[in-house]
Amino acid sequence: MYEMCVGPEGPGEALVWHVMAKQATATLCGQQLAERIEAAGAERAGHCSRCMASFAKLMKVTRR
């Protein structure tokens, strides 16, 4: 199972939605999210392209 988490795209950068496996310590792009940010603070945030690409690959492998 995976969940969407809000965090900066990089140190000091804009907020984006990352993909993280449940019970994981890092997002699919390798970010360590130091704190949980309320989703209301990122309603219009984009998605992390590296997380989304990794997630797409995982879903493609899972379908086989």
Query: For the residues shown, what is the average pLDDT?
Result: 87
Total helical segments? 1
Distance between the termini: 17 Å
Specify the overall morphology: globular
Helix fraction? 10-25%
Provide the low-confidence segments as ranges: none
Beta percentage is 25-35%
Structural class: alpha+beta
Radius of gyration: 12 Å
Summarize the helix and strand pattern as letters. Answer: EEEH
Strand order in space, largest sheet: 1-2-3
Number of strands: 3
Describe the main β-sheet briefly. Answer: 3 strands, mixed
Number of domains: 1
Outline the fold blueprint.
Blueprint: E1 2-8, E2 15-21, E3 46-47, H1 49-63
Parallel strand pairs: 2-3
Antiparallel strand pairs: 1-2
Describe this structure in words.
The chain has one domain (2-63). It is built from one helix and three strands. The chain has one helix spanning 49-63; strands at 2-8, 15-21, 46-47. It has a three-stranded mixed β-sheet with strand order 1-2-3.
Observed structural traits:
alpha+beta, 64 residues, single chain, 23% helix, 25% strand, 3-stranded mixed sheet
Report a brief summary of the structure.
This protein is an alpha+beta fold and 64 residues long. Helices cover 23% and strands 25% of the residues.
